[in-house]
Amino acid sequence: MIKRIEQLRDEGQAAIDAAAGTAELEEVRVRFLGRKAELPRLLRGVAELPADERAAVGRTANEVRRQLEAAVEAKAGTLAGAELDAQLAADRIDVTLPADPAPQLGRLHLITRTRRELEDVFIGLGFTVVEGPEVERVYYNFDALGVAPTHPSRLLTDTFYVDPIDDIFDPRSLLLRVHTSPMQIRAMESQPPPIYVIVPGRVYRPDNDATHTPQFHQLEGLAIDEQITLADLKGTLLTFAQAIFGPDREVRLRPHFFPFTEPSVEVDVSCFNCADGVSEAVTEDGDERCSLCKGTGWIEILGAGMVDPDVLAHVASGGYDPEKVQGFAFGMGIERIAMLKHGVPDLRLLYDNDIRFLEQFA
Ligand code: PHE
Question: What is this structure's pTM?
Answer without folding.
Answer: 0.73
